[in-house]
Amino acid sequence: MNCFELDTISHRYDRETVLQDVTLQLEPGEILGLFGHNGAGKTTTIKLILGLMTPSAGRLSVLGGEAGDPRVSQHIGYLPENVMFYPQLTGREILAHFARLKGASPAQVPELLSQVGLADAMDARTRTYSKGMRQRLGLAQALLGKPRLLMLDEPTVGLDPVATADLYRLLRQLRDEGTGIVLCSHVLPGVEPYIDRAAILTSGALKAVGDLPSLRRQADMPVTLDLTPAGDVEALETAVNSATRGHEVVVRQGDGRLTVEVAPQQKMSLLQGLMASGAIADLSIHQPSLEDIYVHFIGDGGLAHRGGAQ
Ligand SMILES: Nc1ncnc2c1ncn2[C@@H]1O[C@H](COP(=O)(O)OP(=O)(O)OP(=O)(O)O)[C@@H](O)[C@H]1O
Predict the structure, then answer these.
(1) Distance from the CA of 253 to the center of ligand 1, in angstroms?
(2) CB of 43 closer than 6 A to ligand 1?
(3) Which residues pair with 23 in a beta bridge?
(4) With a 6 A CB cut-off, is 10 part of the ligand 1 pocket?
(5) Ligand 1 atom at shortest distance from the alpha carbon of 37
(6) Which end of the chain offers a freer environment for a tag, N or C, measured as fewer CB atoms within 10 Å?
(7) Which helix (H) or strand (E) segment is 71 a member of?
(8) Which residue spans within 134-279 are E strands per DSSP?
(9) What is the domain class of 4-217 according to CATH?
(10) What share of the chain is helix, strand, coil (3-state, %, to 5)?
(11) Kind and range of the H or E element at 284?
C-alpha cells in the first residue's frame, strides 16, 4: 500500500490556482525530497495529504484511506516549518502532552527526546531552547507513535551541520524500518545522498520526478569534462573538435586545461575519439548535481518565482 497517492490533484485558494494536475506517489521505505521555490505549492501539497483541506480537483488517498480520517492521521507525523511551543513547559512535558493527544505511549517520550539529542535538555523549559533545539523537539513530536508516513517541512532550518547529519542518519534508519518520508526544502546542498527520489515543483506544477539518474535524463543537461592535455592544449582542442564530429560542444581553455560541455548522448563517442587521439593525459567527468537540475527546471526566472525571502 502506498503512503500516499496524488492523482491529477489541483487546488485553488479563492481565485488563484496554486496546484495544477499534480500526480505523485510515495512508497513505504522511501525518502522523497519535495523541492520548489517560495510559493511553489509544497506546503499546500502537505496540507492536502494531512487532510487539512480538500483538493479542488483530482483524487487523493493516504495510507490506503482518506486524508483527514483519524484512523489515517494517527499514523502520520508532521513537522511544520515554524514550530512553536508553550515557553513555560519543559520539553518532556510538551512531548508527553502531544503523546496523550495522539494516543501514543508516554513511555516513549524520554527515548524520543534522547534520539533527537535533547537528553540533557528535556527538563528545561522550552523558553530556554535555541531555535535548533525547538526544531529537534518538533521532530520528536513528529516521531511520536512511530508514524508510517512522516512529512517534514524545512527540517534542517536552525540545525547546525552536525545536527543536520544526525537528522539525516535518523531519517535513513526510519526509512529502512519502512517509514515513508517527505522532505520539503529549498536547501539542496548536502541533501542529495539522503533522498531516494526528488520531485521538483514550480508554480504549482510538477516539473520532474525521479531518482538522480532519471532526473539527469529528464533534464538532458550537458556533462562537463575537465581534460588535461598530453602535449599542448591546442592539439587537444583539435582532437576534441575532430572527435565531436560536428556535434555541438562548448570548449573553454584555462590553466593549460580544457573544459568541455557535451550532450550526455555524445559523451562516450567523444571519449572514444579522445582516447584514440593520444592527445589526452587525464580527465574528470562532472554530472549535473541535484542543485544544477533544480535550477534547470526552476528556470532562469527562478528569482521571479521566489515570492518570499529565502
Ligand atoms: N491560505 C491561503 N490563502 C490564499 N493563498 C494561499 C494560502 N496559502 C498559500 N497560498 C498561496 O499558495 C501558493 C503556494 O503556497 P505554499 O505555501 O503551498 O508554497 P510553498 O512552496 O510551501 O512556499 P514556501 O517555500 O515559501 O513555504 C502561494 O502563491 C501562496 O501565496
Answers:
(1) 45
(2) yes
(3) none
(4) no
(5) 25
(6) C
(7) helix 70-73
(8) 149-153, 180-185, 197-202, 205-210, 223-229, 249-254, 257-262
(9) alpha beta
(10) 40, 30, 35
(11) strand 280-286
Buried b (16+ CB within 10 A) or exposed e, 92-109: bbbbbbbbeebebeeebb
DSSP 266: G
Architecture of domain 222-287: 2-Layer Sandwich (3.30)
What is the residue with the minimal CA distance to atom 6 of ligand 1?
13
For ligand 1, whether the C-beta of 308 sits within 6 Å is yes
* Cross-strand bridge partners of residue 182: 32, 151
Half-sphere exposure in the Cβ direction for 199 (13 Å, CA) = 22
CA terminus-to-terminus distance, the chain: 36
In this structure, the residue with its CA closest to atom 25 of ligand 1 is 38
Protein residue closest via CA to atom 2 of ligand 1: 13
Locate the ligand 1 atom nearest the alpha carbon of residue 307 and give its number.
26
pLDDT recorded at residue 253: 81
What is the residue-wise DSSP string for 160-187? -HHHHHHHHHHHHHHHHTT-EEEEEES-
Cα 281 to the center of its chain, rounded Å = 38
Residue 96 is predicted with a pLDDT of 96
Cα(299) to ligand 1 centroid in Å equals 20
Q: 42-99: per-residue pLDDT in tens?
A: 999 999 999 999 999 999 999 999 999 999 999 999 999 888 899 999 999 999 999 9
| Residue nearest (by alpha carbon) to ligand 1 atom 7 | 13
Q: What are phi and psi of 88, to 5 degrees?
A: -85, -10
The whole-number pLDDT of residue 300 equals: 52
- Taking the centre of ligand 1 as the mean of its atom positions, its distance from the CA of residue 182, in whole angstroms, is 18
* Structural domain boundaries in the chain: 4-217, 222-287
**The C-alpha cell that represents 47 in the structure block:** 496540507
Q: Which parts of the chain register pLDDT below 70?
A: 300-310
Pocket test for ligand 1, best of 9, 44, 188 (most atoms within 8 A of CB): 44
